[in-house]
Amino acid sequence: MPSFDKPTDQQEATRDAQGADSRAATEVALFEAFGGVRGMVETTVPGLVFVAIYTVKRDIHIAAIAALGLSLLLGIARLVRKDTLKHAFSGVFGVAFGAVFAMMSGDAKNFYLPGMLYTLGLAVGYIVSALAGYPLMGLILGPVFKENLSWRTRNPGRKVAYTKASWAWGLILLAKSAVLFPLYWWGDVTQLGWVKVALGIPPMLLSVYLTWIFLSKAPPPIDVFAEMEAAERAEREREATAR
């Protein structure tokens, strides 16, 4: 009869340690990819400044310039701290685009339109990529985990997790868009601005949390860079032996 030995305490401890390491690595990778809580705050605060100043002053130019100036200061602070450049510049460019669009059009609501269109496009991208078998979350996080596209063919459990995460991001961002666009069309700028600020951090936190849940339960990533380095070392050793 086959033996069904229970795992030893040492084996269970090893598995628990491996699981904890995997969860910690996933958490670090997610914070690196999405800028952490600080990145979420930085994308929300300029919009808060814009709607607050516009509510009081009713001046598009003052509100837009103030929001852009704050975004620039936040970007410079990231550069001084030697943080990732993509987080330093992405927020600045987004706010600058919205500020210019609002001032040129003369409609304060257009300050938020570029970001809303980006959110909607991102939602569609997540959903379409998941349906196509190339989940966008895998394309984003694969290089961070040093697995590149190995999850598509060699690690099906990771592909399932990335697909679930992409669906989560897509549906959450789609729901956010379903709230904001009616306000853009039929509400006033104050309503749109405050609701957009309120919907800035919670949906992203929920999306990141669900992604963490899916990936922490998935198999560990295959480090393709380590594999290539090992293959190169083996090749050098064979050449040295041949000499």
Kindly estimate the percentage of residues that lie in beta strands according to DSSP: under 5%
Give the terminus-to-terminus CA distance. 53 Å
| Biggest sheet descriptor | none
Helix percent band: over 70%
The H/E string reads: HHHHHHHHHHH
Kindly provide the radius of gyration, computed on alpha-carbon positions and rounded to a whole number of angstroms.
23 Å
Count of alpha/pi helices: 11
SS-derived structural category: mainly alpha
Question: How many strands?
Answer: 0
Low-confidence stretches: 11-19
> How confident is the prediction overall: mean pLDDT?
83
Overall form: elongated
Write the layout of secondary structure elements.
Layout: H1 9-34, H2 36-57, H3 60-80, H4 85-105, H5 113-132, H6 136-141, H7 150-153, H8 156-186, H9 189-198, H10 202-216, H11 224-242
Helix pairs in contact: 1-2, 1-10, 2-3, 2-9, 3-4, 5-8, 8-10
Offer a quick outline of the entry.
The protein is mainly α and 243 residues long. It has 11 helices and no strands.
Q: Top keywords for this entry?
A:
243 residues, mainly alpha, 11 helices
Describe the structure.
The protein has 11 helices and no strands. It has helices at 9-34, 36-57, 60-80, 85-105, 113-132, 136-141, 150-153, 156-186, 189-198, 202-216, 224-242. Helix 1 (9-34) runs parallel beside helix 2 (36-57), helix 1 packs antiparallel against helix 10 (202-216) and helix 2 packs antiparallel against helix 3 (60-80). The chain has 243 residues and is mostly helical.
